[in-house]
Specification:
The complex is a heterodimer of chains A (311) and B (334).
Chain A: H1 2-29, H2 34-37, H3 44-53, H4 60-72, H5 87-122, H6 127-141, H7 144-158, H8 160-163, H9 173-203, H10 206-213, H11 218-230, H12 232-236, H13 238-255, H14 261-270, H15 274-302
Chain B: H1 7-11, H2 14-40, H3 49-59, H4 61-85, H5 122-158, H6 160-174, H7 178-189, H8 194-205, H9 207-221, H10 224-231, H11 236-244, H12 249-275, H13 284-293, H14 300-327, H15 330-333
Classes of the chains: A mainly alpha (311), B mainly alpha (334).
Chain lengths: 311, 334
């Protein structure tokens, strides 16, 4: 197990380097220069100085090495557009907001979705099952921008008088309710479907039949045998769900005017603020890579059979 | 059924008798096989692969309903603009004409989906937007399939170090977040139009297909008929194309229906954050974004294109589900 973890952890380093390289190459391919976008023409000498200051005069691999060094020192460099602000400042300012939104939405999804899936599986083909699955399928397919907009329309605009929920912002606890639920609907439905499917599969296993044949009480069979084994696949859902949360937060932050990293990302791309775009992309990639790492190790603990297959 | 010779047999010619008896016997055989097959949910002996898949698909009620819903949506998208363009129906529903006196009309018989802020008819405009969304979706799905199948089959078929390297690369790409990746690609291409959208969506989402294809090829490679083909002297490319890729067709078809809604939703997301194709053209994503500007007073404008997207996602999802069961019965047992 230790060997597996060590191998798996070391493996993230080349992956990280490759991801930074990919992002870096892609950023280099974007045409245009942040210093030429401004209205005032920049004299060639100043342009040269600026290039030198931001190491833009070096060959691309020099810039890459310099950047990688920065990433490992947790320094993402200065912003090219926002004066006196480093990418670290911007990340520090906006990332906690996105993190909170994402974590709360994920929690909401798991806390509501998992029990919903269990309920649907235990009462298969009943009213509860059909109700839960209809809800899950609808929630699964409706785009998050519609969910968010309708939430604002009904709960903040029409019923705001009773609910006291604002239409946008992220400063008060009330303002967090709608964005979290809107972003959490997808993880919720995803979890509910996954857990239901996995439970139905586990319920048909031979060892469940054995447990029942031994005369174990239903509660113990479900609690000790079924739940434990059928919740393992839910752990692996964390990877794709995290990807969704990131994508979804771009939309949700735009709609609710939340000052998070997703909204800032779009602005930085449009302003050609390369270092910010790159910094945020690398940050998001690192989060995904680490999440995958944690999931793999966790899965190794939960299901020993996977240890050798996954490196 | 075919008992000993009877009076009827004697009256007919010997040839007819034998022929009839054989026919009855064959019928009995096939009938029992059919019954046995039904019980086991296995293939009917006389049905071809596709007929067989069709029967299995038809039995899945949810998938049939989904297929009908999908066809209705496709019909709406294709037929409505055609009828309006040729002034057969909805003669006054111009999707491009700006008429401020008709702005924000609520849904009515004349304008089933109402009109937008410029007085453009949304019934025809949504259908046209659907054409754009479908076109982007289909083009990107086709590109994803081509890239994914090529990458996956090269990796899976060659095996060894090349396979290892290719999979490691794919693993690394899995670390890249989907939407930022697409946004950067759009920034590289400089403009947002049909083809740049297709390229961005393809680059951001071909990994899954590649990975699944590799898995399929590796599984199929171990079959005896592949070894038999090699033993019979088949070249590598013949094995790949005639024996391996052909057998992944079912999985590919399922994946088309899984990727299509994903890509269309991705396009909608990009449009929604302001990176959609330019007006006056529209896709469902840009229509939703338009609607979002006016949701406070006229919520129906955002609801319509979003429901179209949801309709597509849901129907495609259930079709994929049914197709998976129909084309690959083994997956049900696994």
């Amino acid at each position: 197990m230790v060997k597996f973890i060590v191998r798996r952890v070391f493996w993230t380093i080349p992956v990280l380097l490759l991801v930074i390289l990919m992002t870096f190459v892609m950023m280099k391919m974007i045409k245009g220069n942040p210093f030429q976008v401004t209205e005032r023409a920049v004299p060639p000498s100043i342009q040269a100085n600026l290039n030198r200051k931001f190491h833009l005069n070096q060959p691309w691999w020099g810039q890459y090495l310099y950047y990688v060094e920065g990433v490992f020192k947790l320094d993402l460099g200065p912003s090219l557009v926002q004066r006196n602000q480093t990418v670290n400042d911007i990340v520090k300012e906006h990332f906690p907001v996105s993190l909170e939104l994402g974590v709360l939405a994920m929690l909401f999804g798991v806390v509501v979705g998992v029990p919903l899936g269990i309920l649907a599986a235990l009462k298969q083909n009943s009213f509860w099952d059909y109700g839960a699955m209809t809800f899950a399928n609808i929630g699964f397919s409706i785009p998050s921008f519609l969910v968010a907009t309708l939430f604002i329309y009904f709960f903040a605009l029409k019923l705001g008088h009773y609910t006291g929920l604002p239409t946008n912002g992220w400063d008060t606890p009330q303002s967090k309710v709608l964005p979290v639920i809107a972003l959490g609907i997808f993880p919720l439905t995803y979890m509910a479907r996954l857990v239901r499917g996995s439970m139905l599969e586990t319920l048909q296993q031979d060892y469940i039949r054995t447990a029942r044949a031994k005369g174990l009480r239903n509660r113990i069979v479900i609690g000790k045998h079924v739940l434990r084994n059928s919740l393992i696949p839910a752990v692996t859902a964390a990877g794709p769900l995290l990807g969704y949360i990131i994508t979804g937060s771009f939309i949700i932050e735009t709609i609710f005017a939340i000052p998070g990293i997703g909204r800032y990302y779009v602005i930085s791309v449009q302003a050609r603020d390369y270092s910010v775009t790159m910094g945020i992309t690398v940050l998001l990639s690192v989060i995904i890579i680490i999440a995958n790492l944690v999931v793999d190790i966790l899965y190794g603990f939960l299901d020993p059979r996977t240890r050798d297959e996954r490196t | 059924m075919s008992g000993p010779e009877t009076a009827t047999d004697r009256r007919e010619g010997a040839f007819e008798a034998v022929h009839r008896r054989r026919a009855t016997f064959e019928e009995t055989l096939s009938r029992t096989a059919e019954a046995r097959g039904r019980e086991a949910g296995a293939a009917l002996p006389k049905a071809s692969l596709w007929k067989d898949a069709y029967y299995r698909f038809i039995k899945n009620k949810a998938s049939v309903v989904a297929a009908i819903a999908f066809l209705i949506l496709l019909g709406y998208v294709l037929i409505v603009p055609f009828l309006a363009e040729h002034h057969i129906l909805w003669k006054n529903n111009d999707p491009y004409a700006v008429r401020f006196d008709q702005a924000f009309l609520s849904p009515s018989w004349a304008h089933p989906f109402g009109t937008d802020e410029f007085g453009r008819d949304l019934w025809v405009r949504t259908a046209l937007g659907g054409r754009v969304s479908f076109a982007i979706g289909l083009a990107a799905t086709a590109a994803i399939m081509i890239v994914g199948i090529t990458y996956g089959s090269i990796s899976g078929f060659s095996g060894g170090k090349l396979d290892n390297a290719m999979m490691r690369f794919l693993d690394a790409l899995y670390g890249l977040p989907y939407l930022p990746f697409a946004i950067i690609t759009l920034a590289i291409l400089g403009t947002v139009n049909f083809w740049s959208m297709v390229i961005a969506l393809t680059i951001a989402s071909w990994f899954t297909t590649a990975r699944v294809m590799r898995g399929q090829i590796i599984t199929l490679k171990q079959n005896d008929y592949v070894r038999a083909a090699y033993a019979a002297g088949a070249r590598r490319h013949r094995v790949l194309f005639r024996h391996l890729l052909v057998n992944t067709l079912g999985v590919i078809i399922v994946f088309v229906f899984l990727e299509l809604p994903g890509v269309i939703l991705g396009e909608a997301f990009l449009s929604f954050i302001g990176l959609g194709i330019n007006p006056p053209k529209a896709s469902w994503g840009t229509l939703a974004q338009d609607g979002y500007q006016y949701y406070q007073a006229h919520p129906y404008i955002i609801v319509i294109p979003s429901v179209m997207i949801a309709w597509l996602i849901l129907s495609a999802f259930f079709i994929a589900d049914g197709l998976r069961d129909a084309l690959d019965p083994r997956s049900r047992e696994a």
